[in-house]
Amino acid sequence: MRCNNCCRSIPFASIFATILVVGGVVVFSLYLYDGMQTVKVIMSDHFLMSADTIQWVDQLRTGLIAVAAVMAFCALLKLLFGFMVTGRTREDCCRRGCPNACGKFMGGLFILLTWLFHIVWLAVTCCAAVLLLAQMMMSSMCDLREPGSCLDLTNYGIETGSFNGTTYKICDQDTILAFCDDVDYMWVPGIGILAGAAAIVLGFLHYMGTLTANYVYLKKEEWFEENYNQDMAMMHMKA
User: Coiled-coil ranges per the record (predicted)?
Assistant: First the structure.
């Protein structure tokens, strides 16, 4: 009996969603850091871009990792909220009055934030998929190139001079081999970034369901409370 009551107080759905989000943030951040470092090497060593020109890579990496960390923190807050509105804890903390109103407010706020975060990370996942597709095209370009030929990235819509006069054409064979090695190395970070972002999206999608269910439970508790008070008042009047 005690074990059953204990299990009823554990928000398994919120725990599963939290594992998806936090795990996705860890995988995304680790592979993003490694992948962005390789991108800096490609830009500086193979296309001879200056440090000032590629400064945006560090800024983008720091910004994305910071946003991912904030979302992981929000996931832990949602897990705490899940514990508060599950089983006996819901009956003790969110049954009536001010706690119930605060619980409904927090539930509605978390639903709104989760929806916004889901849209953001859906866009990040799409960008990661596009970048992985571009990497696939560059890898096939390396595999299909003829010996002694140049690599020209302008064939893929990259305009020459878009970064302070940089020419996106490599003819030195040693540089081409190094570039292709870096592109092949980017497969693992690219897949890791996409997998981490997809896990975060799935986690937030799962949170949408659990938070909506918790909000409905809180509304149901309020409805039961009101009907209980009305029934008790009628019994006192009849007595």
Answer: none
The confidence score (pLDDT) of residue 145 equals 75
Contacts 24+ apart (CB under 8 A), 147-155: 148/173, 150/176, 151/176, 151/179
Amino acid found at 123: A
| Residue for token pair 């896990």 | 199
pLDDT at 63 over 50: yes
Encoded tokens for 32: 């993003």
Q: What is the mean pLDDT of the chain?
A: 76
pLDDT digits (tens, 9 = 90+) for 33-52: 888 888 888 777 777 676 77
Query: Is the torsion defined by CA of 220, 222, 224, 230 positive or negative?
Result: negative
As to burial, measured by CB atoms within 10 angstroms (0-12 exposed, 13-18 middle, 19+ buried), residue 19 is: middle
Other beta carbons within 10 Å of 200: 29
Give the helix ranges, DSSP H, for 94-186.
97-144, 173-185
Tell me the two tokens of residue 182: 């870096």
Sign (positive or negative) of CA dihedral 116, 118, 120, 122? negative
**Could you read off the pLDDT of 144-176 as tens digits, one per residue?**
777 777 777 776 666 555 455 556 677 777 877
R_g of the chain computed on alpha carbons? 26
